[in-house]
Design a protein that fits this description.
Blueprint (H helix, E strand, L loop, with lengths): L6 E8 L3 E10 L4 E6 L8 H11 L3 E11 L7 E2 L1 H15 L10 H5 L5 E2 L5 H52 L2 H16 L5 H15 L2 H19 L5 H20 L4 H21 L19 H4 L16 H7 L10 H11 L11
Helix pairs in contact: 1-4, 4-7, 4-9, 5-6, 7-8, 8-9
């Protein structure tokens, strides 16, 4: 069952040192991006927070907000009198250079960092309870994402049924295409009131019927719908797969629109596009197969390796040198009209070593 990337969860716990609360807000994003917001007292647990969130979630932007309110019994404030005296002396020194200095108030001094100090609870005593509360919040967030994914699944299956209904109607209409063409041509020939060649008429009907035939497009749409239903029933992230299927469905709908012979067929193509676009928007919220990446980028192949290789027409596996690197670093070898990339490709196929670079370079 697909999981949504949009969810919100919050948990709060009362400890001896004070009250701790977690808020997790997840929205759709291309990669996994974790944004922890922790108080200075618990800043040291940020690596563990990232690790625990990354172990549960695979994609999306997750905002992790931790709040800590000390217990009322610990609300004891201390004033750094030495720092206050130094601040007052500095203010009086500056006042000697000002014609009409402003009056200094106590609340101005209280806002200065370090003037007011409060005893901090032990960080190690808060570490485990805070992380346990984070785990409970993550469990709730994961459950909300699963429930939202279930609703998305129902929405997508409903749109699949709508598309299947339009395809069935178009398939029934396509079966009568030849007879409609024959009738239309005969009506036009009757209006012209002239003789015609029956063999030439049959050729024209066959040509028009072949040009307007949408059987292959309808078959491919049915195949894509079966793949969508299978992906929605899988127990793994399928967002990337569904996104690709939406592109394929939209391509077939465009082809149906280009082959439309009347207004009804054009309207059916538009309705297909509307349903596919509604599905595509919701698919963006479904978690995909991409694993969590610590650096915020997709693990595996890079952007250039995702494209077709410029050398052999295939995708380079991870760890192999890319066409961009070969083109930038390999010296020219061979006839002057042969490109540097082609020279590098020839060396890769033959296994010949790279020629020595001249000292002048």
């Amino acid at each position: 069952m697909p999981a949504s990337m949009t969810a919100f969860a919050a948990h709060e716990a009362s400890l001896e040192q004070g009250t701790v609360s977690w808020e997790l807000r997840a929205v759709n994003h291309r990669h996994l991006e974790i944004q922890p917001r922790l108080p200075d007292l618990l800043r040291a647990i940020e690596p563990e927070v990232r690790e625990r969130v990354g172990a549960v979630l695979g994609r999306g932007r997750v905002e992790c907000i931790l709040r800590f309110v000390p217990a009322a019994g610990d609300a004891h404030l201390e004033v750094d009198e030495d720092l206050v005296a130094a601040l007052v002396r500095a203010c009086h020194t500056i006042d000697d250079y000002i014609t009409n200095p402003a009056r200094l108030y106590s609340h101005d001094l209280l806002r200065w960092p370090g003037v007011v100090r409060s005893p901090e609870p032990e960080r190690e005593a808060l570490r485990e309870p805070v992380l346990d509360l984070l785990d409970a919040t993550l469990d709730e967030l994961e459950g909300i994402r699963a429930r939202e994914g279930e609703r998305l699944q129902g929405f997508l299956l409903e749109r699949c049924d709508g598309i299947a209904g339009i395809v069935a109607s178009e398939r029934q209409h396509a079966a009568d295409t030849t007879e409609r063409l024959r009738r239309k041509l005969m009506e036009r020939l009757a209006q012209l009131d002239t003789e015609h060649d029956p063999g030439r008429l049959e050729q024209e009907i066959a040509y028009q019927a072949q040009r307007l035939d949408v059987t292959e497009e309808l078959d491919r749409i049915d195949t894509h719908l079966e793949a969508v239903r299978a992906a929605l029933a899988a127990d793994e992230p399928v967002g990337r797969r569904l996104d690709f299927l939406m592109q394929e469905l939209n391509r077939e709908a465009n082809t149906l629109g280009s082959k439309a012979a009347d207004a009804d067929r054009s309207q059916a193509s538009v309705e297909l596009k509307v349903l596919i676009e509604q599905m595509r928007e919701q698919v963006q919220n479904i978690e995909s197969e991409w694993p969590p990446a610590a650096n915020g980028r997709r693990q595996g192949v890079s952007r250039i390796r995702d494209r077709r290789s410029l050398l052999h027409g295939s995708v380079w596996p991870r760890g192999r040198i890319t066409a961009e690197v070969i083109q930038r670093q390999a010296p020219r070898q061979g006839p002057p009209w042969q490109s540097r990339t082609a020279c590098a490709a020839a060396r890769c196929r033959t296994g010949s070593p790279r020629p020595a670079t001249p000292a002048s370079r």
